[in-house]
Amino acid sequence: AMEKSYISMFLLLLAISCALAKDAGKKETKETTAKPKLPQTLSRGWGDQLIWTQTYEEALFRAKHSNKPLMIIHHLEDCPHSQALKKVFAEHKDIQKLAENFILLNLVYETTDKNLAPDGQYVPRILFIDPSLTVRADITGRYSNRLYAYEPSDISLLYSNMQKAQKLLKTEL
């Protein structure tokens, strides 16, 4: 049963990558006709000019194949803490610039991957995953009871953790 699920997952990833490859070929011709860029809904307000992935699976695939770290933001649209962090994140020019070097995913639902909730399912929660698909549980915020929580006042810590996630990439892989 386990092998079957691996095979079906592999086929799914294969189908997605084929579809993505086909789309990539099309995009080049479309962009030359200079259409105005539509705001990206996948950003959910975290950075409309950034490229966001749609699913956890797609994000893992892209992290592995692009050799970029993955940054996952768990949040809820009606959570005041999530909204406050989102506003500061989206307005922070250095973070927005640095975020271009990451595969980005923001989730308003929990995944079934328990590695993404090492110390519980709370929001906002930000985790980094390196291209070897290891959750970097060592990159934490300042709260001992919620290791991956950030508040608007922690934005510079988040920025330095993003830098750390990139440095680890260069030194370890």
From TrEMBL:
Key word Signal present: yes
Matches recorded under InterPro entries: AGR/TXD, Thioredoxin-like_sf
Taxonomic source organism: Galbula dea
Entry-linked SUPFAM superfamilies: Thioredoxin-like
The keyword Endoplasmic reticulum is assigned to this record: yes
Stored PANTHER family: ANTERIOR GRADIENT PROTEIN 2 HOMOLOG (PTHR15337:SF1), ANTERIOR GRADIENT PROTEIN-RELATED (PTHR15337)
Entry's family note: Belongs to the AGR family.
Main location: endoplasmic reticulum
Highest taxon in the source lineage: Eukaryota
Signal sequence segment: 1-21
Gene: Agr2
GO molecular function per UniProt: dystroglycan binding
The protein's name in its UniProt record: AGR2 protein
GO cellular component assignments: endoplasmic reticulum; extracellular region
Keyword line: Endoplasmic reticulum, Secreted, Signal
Compartments, as annotated in UniProt: Endoplasmic reticulum; Secreted
